[in-house]
Specification:
Blueprint: H1 2-22, H2 27-57
């Protein structure tokens, strides 16, 4: 079930990013896309580390 939530969220985020940045290219929007990508990568890293932490702590 968590996998389904992930793919639904991924699809929505991808659709929004492509709609926003792909069809209307500008330097300002490209910089915002880079910042958004960095934020998503940091969020995924934090979630991954939390998963490892709770798995190690409660197993």
């Amino acid at each position: 079930m968590p996998t389904a939530f992930f793919w639904i969220a991924w699809g929505l985020i991808s659709f929004w990013a492509l709609k926003t940045f792909y069809y209307s290219f500008s330097k300002e929007k490209l910089e915002k896309l880079r910042q958004a990508a960095l934020g998503i990568n940091v969020a995924v890293l934090i979630l991954l580390l939390f998963c490892f932490y709770f798995r190690a702590r409660f197993s």
